[in-house]
Amino acid sequence: MIKLFIKFSALTCALLSAVAYADSTEVWVDSYTPFEAIEAQPAAPPTNPITHYAKEVPVITLEPFIESKKISDSRAFKANNPRTLSAPLNIGVKRVVSETDTVEKVDSYLAWETLEDNSHIAALSIISPHALGNRLVLNIEKLDPRAELRFSNGNNDEVFTVSGEDIINTIFKDKQTNEDQETNKNLYIGPYLSGEQATLEIFLPKKVAIDSVELSLPYLSHIFLSPTDLELLNQGSNDLSCMVNVACDSSWNNANGIARMLYTNTLGSTYVCTGTLLADRLNTREPYFLTSSGCISSQELASNLQTFWLYKTDSCYANTLNNSYKRLTGGADLLFKHDSTKTVLLRLHDQAPAGVTFQGWSSEDAKNRYVSVIQYPAVAPQKMAKGYSAVSFADCQYAAGSTLTCRDSRSNDAGFLKVEYNSGVTADGSNGSGMFIAEKNNQGKKKHYLVGQLFTGSSSCTAPSAPDFYGRLDLALEAGLSKWLYNIKPTNRKSPVFRFYNATVGGHFFTGSVKERDDVLRKYPSYSYEGQAFFTYLNVSSGFSPVYRFYHKVRGSHFYTISESEKEAFQKNQPNYNYEGIAWLAAQNPVPGSHPLYRFYNTKTRAYFYTASTIEKNRIINKSPSFVYEGIAYHVWKK
Prior knowledge:
With 639 residues, the chain is mainly β. Strand 36 (595-602) and strand 37 form a beta hairpin.
C-alpha cells in the first residue's frame, strides 16, 4: 500500500491529482498552524456607524419559565437507555413571544428615532427570566438590503451587527435548499446572546424608508445551559468523572482546531455538538469543518451555526479555563453530506481564529488501530478519549420505530468503525467529534490524522467498555468529499454567458450558447446585445451543478435556478413557465475564484434579473425600488 504524505503542497497539482484517486494510494495530509495570525472577521461588517438608540427601549418581560433549572438540567443530561449519541445535546427550548408574533404587533413597539443625517433607528428588548442565554427568531416579510440589525445582550458587552443584505442572502439560500418550497416563513435566527435579555436594534440609513422593514419576532430560543459555563458541570447530573483533559497529553498541544458547535433549528430548540477544522491538500486556509449529520443535516442549521474555539483548561488537572477562547458567529455553507457514514463537511463563513490548527486527515480505513478522540462533552471544556478500533467494520441502520442499531459487518462498504476505550469516554455533546490515528510523516515526526467522526454509541463513565461508532472518512472521500479536500480543479475551460436586454418585455435574457447568441442577434431586433455577463462551465465533467432555464410563455421572459427544489416547484405550480433544460453549470457554494451572482425580482415587469457586478447590484438597490433583491442565486466566474 502506497502512503502519500502531503505537506505545504510540495508536489505539483498535476501529480497530486493523478495519485489522489488511485485505489492503491492512501492520502495523508499533515496538520498545520498558519505562520502569521489572521484574526477572524465578522461575516458582515457594518457599512454605517451604528448609533445607540437614545430613547427608552421598550422591554417585554415574559412569564417566568415553567421548568425549573433542576428540571432543565435533568432534561439535558438524562441518560437514555441505551444512550444514543446521534441525538445532540439540547441546551435551549422554544419560548413563544405572543406580544411580537405579527408585523403589526412589532410596529406598535417600535418608536423610530430620526438622527441628524436623516437616518432612523428603533429598538426592542425581550427578557426571558432565568435564561442563561437567548437567540431571537425573526420572520422577515420585507427588509431593505441597506438596513442593519444589531443584536446585543443586557450588559451590552456582546454586540453583533448584521446587514440586511446578508440576512436576505441567508434566508434565500435556506429556502433554495429546502425541499419544502411552499413554506411562507422567512426565518432568520439571531446570534447567541448570554443572559436573560436580548435587544434588537434596527438601523435604516438615510433614504431608506421606515416602511421598507416588516418583521415579526414570533419566538426565541431560551438557553438553559450555557455552552461556556464551567459552574454548570458541578450542578448537572451527567457523570464526567472519567473524562480526561486534553492538556494531559503533550502530543496533543495542537488540538486547537476542534470547536464546540451551537445551532438552533426552526422549532426554536438549540443544541451543541463538536466539529473539526480540516486542512485541505494545498493548505489554502479554507475553513473546512467536519462534523456529523446527527448534528448539522441542512443548510438552515448550517446558516445559524456558531463555533467556540480554544475552550479548554490551562493544565491537566486544572478546573480553571483558558480565557482566550473565541467565538465565530457567521454560520457556514453545507458542502457535502454522506448518508452512509453520516459525514458532513461545512465551510465556515468566517476565517478561522488566529492560532488554531487545521487538522490533518488520512484516507486509511483505520481498522484495528489505536485511536484518540478530541471532543466537547456536555458543556465541559475540551476532553479526550483513547482506545482501539475494531478489526472489522460496522453497519448502523434505523429499524422500525426509528430505533438505531449498529452491528459488525464483513462488508468493506459498511460505513462505520466500532471503537472501545481504555481511557475516557464520550457523552452528549461529543457527537461529530473527530477520531484520530497517529503516524510518522515523511520527516519522521509523529502526527495525528483524522479518519472518522462520532455518530452514535453508548459509552459512559458508568459503562466505559460500551462501544461508540464513527463514520468512515475514507468512504466519504470516495463518495465526493475529496472534491474539496483534494483541491481538484475542473479540467475543462470556462465559457462566457451572453446578456441581452429585451425592450419588448423589459427584461434580460442570458445564454451560454454561441449559436443561440448569433441567432438572437440575427433574428430578434428587440434584443439588444449587452456583452459577456459572466463565465460558467458547459461540461458536466466540471463537477459543478446544473442551472435550469424556464421560459414564461405569456410574458416572454426567462427564469434561471440552480435549486432542484425550486425547479420542481416551478414545474408543479407555475404552468406558464416552460422548462427548457440545462443552461450551464455553476457552483452552489463559493469556490476559489468564484463570485456571487445576485438575483432580483422586478415587481413591475414580473421578470427576474441577474448580475455578477457588485457595482450594478448596489446601483439597483439604491436607485431602482421596483427591483426587489432576493439574494445570491449561485456562484459564477468573472473570467
